[in-house]
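To: structure desk
From: M.T.
Subject: fold request, one chain
Message: Could you run this one when you get a chance? Sequence is below, nothing fancy, just the single chain.
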Amino acid sequence: MSEQANIIDLLAGTPPELAELRRARPDAVANAELSFTALFEPGDEKDFPQAWRYAVAVFIAGVSGQDEAARFYRDLLEDELDGRAGELGLDEAIGQGLSAGPYDTGDFVVFDLGEGPQGRALSAAFDFAHLLTFHPKDATPAAIGHLQSAGWSDDAIVSLAQLISFVAFQLRVAHGLRVLSGAVEWASPSEIVRAAGVADPSWEPGPRTLIPEVVAPARFVNHSLGWKPWLADLPKDEFTQEHKDALIQPQRIDSEYFRLLARDPAALKARTLTDIDIFYNTEGGLGRAERELAATVVSRLNGCEYCASVHQARSKEEGGDPEAIDRLLEEGVGADLGSPLWNALQKAAAALTQTPFEFSAEHVRVLREEGLDDLALIDLVNSAAFFNWANRLMLTLGEPDVPKRFR
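Reply: Done. Structure tokens follow.
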């Protein structure tokens, strides 16, 4: 796929004028493409074969109701397996897993793709992908132990989490672009119901699973939080120059989160550069406070206390209304944020976070009436989509911790 001009534009059918406007955020565009390369065409597959990577993406797109993306990844899978993709049981798994989210809390849908190392590994990967797609808030160390017991190495678990989370971002940007171009005639996905599952999948932490001592936040807070991983991070003395370059900012080597993501340095580097351009490229488009508002809305809806705590503060620092942001944290998505524009931004970011995606032409119409141009709308789509990537990593690789000074 490396010769493809741009995969998100391909999935979206982005018209030329919108594709050109999207490139006002050139590093975001380029590094979303590099994220695909890092996660689906790595120089070293390690113990996460390329066919498994495509299969997980087919599954995510299928259960998310994104048929065009499912066909795209299935074609890649068929090429990789010489037309034998049907042997994996993907259609049955997608039919079982098609659902609607994010769940407030919920059942776990588990899959059986057969015995043997591949069957057990892919079953566990699909279990994890369904959890991340529909209710990442319900992740626990047991989900990590489940992958480890199915044969997944710690490096491969980090790559799997990045891949699932990246696809969540990729599909939402593509959908947003289709809506902006007028190519989507939106219809309510209300006919899709939550898939039946089990309350307790009987997963358990494994010998390599970390169980950190934390004080979990009792609610969404407007102060800083810590974060502790459920997987061992990469020790500082094992960092190569590639790992250090992937951090972008050298001081991040002191963060357990970034040391953990450094287990897949190519994916970390591309993701970080995507993030920076989406949120800090202020040449036109949506204001910084509003981009950070979108990040906070998505984090509040997905249940990520850590991300919400960081980005509510950044929105305030950039001139956002502190009282409105505190109401969002306290009351949840749907709170009155005090202005028609901010309420419209909240509704649009939340709609793009729902699975199946509910972002529609009506959201675009209201936002345009509030004065947003197409570049600002692209910034909103990018910001909301990116935090559907970030939240899934934070929620499923570790947990927040209240610092001692706030206990």
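Reply (cont.): The chain has 18 helices and two strands. Let me know if you need anything else for the meeting.
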